[in-house]
Each structure stands twice: as structure tokens, then as C-alpha cells.
Amino acid sequence: MAAVVSPNVPAQLQVEGDGARLRMQGAWTLAHLDGLIAGADRMRVASGPLAIDASEVAELDTAGVLLLLRTLRASGQPLQAHTITGLGEADTALLQLLASRLEPQRPQRERHFQFRLLLSRIGTAVVRFLATGREFLGFVGLVIATLGQLLIRRRRLRWTSTVFHMEQVGLDAVPIVALLTFLVGAVVAFVGATALRDFGAEVFTVELVAISFLREFGVLLTAILLAGRSGSAFTAQIGSMKSREELDAIQVLGLDAIELLVIPRLLALLVMLPLLAFIATIMGILGGGLVGILALDITPGMFISRLQEMTDISHFWVGMSKAPIFAFLIAVVGCMEGFKVEGSAESVGFHTTASVVQSIFLVIVVDAMFAMFFMQLDI
Amino acid sequence: MSAASEPIIEVEGLRNVFGKQVVHSDLDLTVMRGEVLGVVGGSGTGKSVLMRAILGLKRPDGGRIRMFGQDTTYLDADARKPFERRIGLLFQDGALFSSLTVAENVKVPLQEYYNLPTDFLDELALLKIRMTGLPANAAHKYPAQLSGGMRKRAGLARALALDPEILFLDEPTSGLDAIGAAAFDDLIRTLANALGLTVFLVTHDMDSLYSLCDRIAVLADGKVVVVDSVEVVERNPHPWIRECFQGPRGRSAMQQHDRNQVAQPKLSGA
Q: Could you tell me the pTM of the whole model?
């Protein structure tokens, strides 16, 4: 290397003598290559052995070597055919190493045809949807079979675990469920009263709040909240166990992951979701009643007597009958997504999101089916 | 190694304390340009803490650290930037970004600091990947699709993306089988020679110490007990060194090393 050249000079490449002689100058490093990369592509070098004078190169790094190799590639000759002079020992070693590792052709960028890409993505999504459906049914079957074995006492119920999950899923969720449904009740009463006032039917606000909460909102809001709160927690808990190979450990120890992990969570949710839905219904009606009393000239006595006289108990049973179904869906989807986690922490996040989306989707679809079912039955 | 006399990292009187536990007290260490320095020590002697302090990932509780002749001990993140371009770090399991392919991982630092034409960038990234001994088709795979050894090589390709002058390696051979570890040591040696790298190697692997390192620094009692070539270090009377180098693993690594020396007497020139 010539010591005269300052290391901060931009890299240059001179082509002389019909493109058979190249002269490299300056710092052939990443920081000083910018100007040269585009230009080097357009340099016309002769096809055949070249003579390269590198005595004025101040510095050389891998990017500089790559640029030189790309230029030489245009000549159609291997590196050994060219004569390179003035390169230091270390730089020659670098050149040799990289030349042996360079791919013979420039890498081809993958070309995407937009329409084909669209079709393939639609296809993938359909196949994945069907596969998820099948997996879901398979998992439901497995869980029900395990529950059956539990009943005939071929498997043990894990009481400690079940009670622990009851606390986490149920008791700890009471404040948030109560507060949210209370507020929604108040909002429904306000909106309803504003619409009904025009017909002078403000007093029907009581029925509006009571029936909507008894039949739909109490259980639906609870289910959606628990899907976000507990379904996601189930996925994350089981998923991180899977990624730390704890599930493999369970299997190798001769234990059953469904019995150990899924059944306690499922039973906890089956018991607690109806209870929470009951609290939610009461709080929603209370919220509506408070708005009625404070803002709509409905006295507490009137509110209670209308509630008793005009609202049939069947609404309550319609709402409550849905609670165990929702609980089952949320628990099964949450646990199943946990089992689908593979390896990385990123996968845990992906499946947690998937679990929440799927369980809320299922809860709302099933609720709509129930609504049609009960309408046909005139209940 | 050319111009081996110039110091590239100087640590003076370094002190690191966690709560009541003193990890380093008055630790001195100098790394020379172009050498491969192995840092060893029992667990809890602060090998990783030393590396993190040099890298600026942990603020030391006392002492000075100079890199490239300039004091970097208490620089803030912005002032550190120019130094960070000149160093590369390979984490234990590669620490690759899991949502990006290997090629995209290598491109991250290149795109951050330089504005290169796309096709040049693609080929440069591929060259770095091939340089670490990975096949070209690994470039478009995601880290989760690679084996542990391949992930380390991919991590190395990213660490070398900006052509650093110093390469930090945190237990590069842990988790690799004996053959894979030896191949990785060879790779580091080849790249260090070709790229003129200074390598700061934290390791437990006795084979790496013998086959790869020019000098070895032994950490014990919060200090560097000795820094010298492996032949000198293995004769040091310090109890930990004796146990380590005279133990079965140390002896087998030494014998292996001696056999290689006989077979290839000119290895040391490199």
C-alpha cells in the first residue's frame, strides 16, 4: 500500500488502454464508495485478462472488494486470469477469500406477479381456515373425551389447579366486568330514553335495559371480556410452556397435558363465566336504573315494580343458557392456540392474538345463531 | 499480525459493583490491534460484564475505558455512534431479528448507515453470508429455520456487515458440538486474518483457547490475573488456572494442540 494516499479520498476507478488496464485510487471502503458503485457498472472493460494497478488504494474492505470483483466479472475471466499489482498482503488475502465465496452470477431478485400472489394468498387463507376448523373440532373431541374419562374416574381432576384458575379467571375479573357493564347499562338507558322520549314512551327504558341485559349484553359482554382477558392468558401460559419444552417434559413424565392444563382451565371458566355473567347482568340493570332514577324521572319503586311485572324470567334463562357454551369456546380456543405455539417468543404473541380474534369471532357468531334459534322457538 | 504494537482497547482501573457484590475492582486490560484475545474465568468472575462495559451496554462504577485511543467510558448514545460502526458483536445465540430473513438481518446495519443501490446491497449481503460459510440458499431463510450453528454464522455475518475493526464474541462455541465448534474457530481465524480483525473472545471452551487465541486474559478475584500466550498462562501458579488447565479438559485440549503443532509446524505464522 502506498502511504502517500490519505484514507479519506473517495474511491476512483480509471479505465485506460481500451479497457484492458484499470487503476484503483482512494479509499475503497463502504463509506467512500457511494459515487463509484453506479459508475462502475457502466465502465466498459475489455473482455479478457486485465491489468489492475492497486498501488494507490488507501484502504480496502469487503464492499470495495465486491465492487472490484463485480467489475472484473464483466470481463468474463476468473480472478486468476487478471494481474493485480500493488495490493498489500492482507488485502490480497481478503480478495482471495471473497473471490472464492462470490456467487458466479448476480443474485436474481424474486419477481412477484401481483395477480398470482393475490390468488395464492386467497388459496392459502382458505386452506388455513379449513385446517383450523378441523384442528378445532379435533381438539374439542379430545377435550370432551378427556372430560368423559374424568366422569368415569379414569382420570383425576386437579382440584388445586382448577381452584387457582377460578380465582384468576373469575374472582379477579369481577371489578372490571362489573364496572364495564354498569357503564354500558347507563349508556343503553340514556340512548334508549332519548329515542323513546319522542313517542312519550320513556318509561319503556326499563324494559329496554332489562331485556337487553338479561338476554344478550350481560353474557355477551362478559364473554368478550373474558376472551380478551383469560383466553389470551391461557394461550400465553400454555404457549410459553410449549416453547420451553415443558409440554414435552409433561409427556415424557407420562402425564397428560389435556388433563393437567386444559381441563382445570375449562372447568374454571365453565363455572365462573355464568357467575360473572350474572353479576354483569345485575350491574347493567343497576346502571340503567341509576340513569333512570337520576335523569329520567323514574322512581326506584316504579323501576322495581316494572322490572318485576313486565320482564319475564325466561329472558334470564335465555341469557344464562348461552354462558356455558361461550365459556367452552373461549377455553378450548385459548388452550388450543397455546398448543400450536412453536419455538420462538414471536410465535407466542402471534397465537395469543389469534386466540383472542378467534374466540371473539366464535362467541359473536354463536350468539347470533342462538338469537335466531330462540326467535324461531318464540322464547 | 502486522503493527501488533498499537493498543486498540485500553481498560484502566475498571470497577463494577452490583449491590454489595464487587465484580471488578481495579481491573486493567489492554487489547492490541490485530490480535485474538481470549477472556476466560470461572462463572461469576465478570467476563460478560467486562465485555458489556467495554461495549457501553453497562456503565462502569469507576475507571476508564479507551477505544481506538479515545475515552469512551461515559459517552452518551449519540457520541457513541461513530465507535459502534467500528465494532461488531456476536451474541450467544446470534440475536438475529426473528421477523427478518438472514439476508435482511445483514442488510439492517448497512441500510441504517449507508445509502447503497439495491442490487449492490443484495450482493454485498449475500457475500457476507457466504463469507461465514453459509450456503447461498440460507439467505432467504428465517432464523427459526436454521440450526444453532447456522444461526451463529448468520449472526456473525450481521456482526461483520459494516467491516468492523473489533469483533466481540460472547461464547461463540457454546451449544455447538465438538466438530461444529472447531469449524467455527477455524472460521474466526480465517476471517480475522483476511479482514485484519481484532477479536475479543469470551469463552469457556479450552479448545478455542489453544487453537484460536494469540493471548489469553484470565479473570479472577475481580482482576485480570495474567495476560499472555497460552503456553505462559498454563504454567501460572494461580489455583483456578492450575485447576482449569491441568484438569482433564485442559489437558486434552493441550495435547490436541501439541499434535497439531507437530503436524503443521508453521501454523503460528498464519
A: 0.69
